[in-house]
Specification:
Elements lengths: L1 E12 L7 E8 L11 E3 L6 H14 L3 E4 L4
Antiparallel strand pairs: 1-2, 1-4, 2-3
Length: about 70
């Protein structure tokens, strides 16, 4: 079974000395049973916070649903 949720991509910064940005995939308006774990991804070294915000904005405008399919019992 595949579950879907409307994603919200938000920029955060790691606590390292460079404050490296990363993007969280939060979601709202999800199917019942959607996991509540934290999902996100790192960006290439040297990505600025401003660029990360641009990427998140692009994703927010162009991704309709985040899907989760459990493949193991």
């Amino acid at each position: 079974m595949t579950l879907r949720a409307k994603p919200l991509f938000r920029v955060h910064q790691h606590g390292d000395a460079e404050h490296t940005p990363w993007i969280e995939i939060a979601y709202w308006n999800s199917d019942d049973g959607m996991p509540t774990d934290l999902f996100g991804f790192d960006l290439p070294d040297g990505t600025t916070f401003k660029k990360a915000e641009e990427i998140a904005e692009f994703l927010n405008q162009n991704i309709d649903n985040f899907t989760y399919t459990k493949t193991t019992p």
